[in-house]
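Annual report, structural modelling task.

Input specification for the protoporphyrin IX containing FE complex:
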Amino acid sequence: MLKHIHLLFVLVVAVTFFYRVYLAERQPEMLQNKWLKIAPHALASVLLLSGIMLTVQGEWLSQSYGWIVAKVILMLVFIALGLVTMKTQGIRRWQAFGGSLITLFLIVKIAIAKQVLFFL
Ligand code: HEM
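The model returned the following structure:
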């Protein structure tokens, strides 16, 4: 159940991020909307919270937990790149967007493998 909530929010965070990048390019004035400013933080918080609860519930910290540390660090990188994506324009925006896609891919890969391999 909790895992499904976690996965649902992974999807919602990804889709709403893509939507905001689309808006930033096509209708930037829409981003002034109060809800579009608050929602990303609320969604990311639920994602983080569900991740922390899964960690406690699955007693993942009593095993080798490098992958959890890696996920948390990469999630921070993902958030930072997301901010750069939204705040910049042109080539910088697409570089940051590309970086955030790679980061997201790595997080999912690490989540499934539950280990951090040298070559990821
Ligand atoms: C953008 C951020 C995140 C993404 C994309 C993500 C993605 C995923 C995915 C795809 C799974 C399912 C893997 C599987 O079992 O097949 C998963 C499980 C899990 N995630 Fe995350 N996650 C994110 C953030 C976090 C954070 C920040 C934490 C910890 C603080 C966390 C903790 C966990 C745990 C413990 C599981 C394993 C649940 C279990 O199998 O019992 N996640 N995550």
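The chain has one domain: 2-113.
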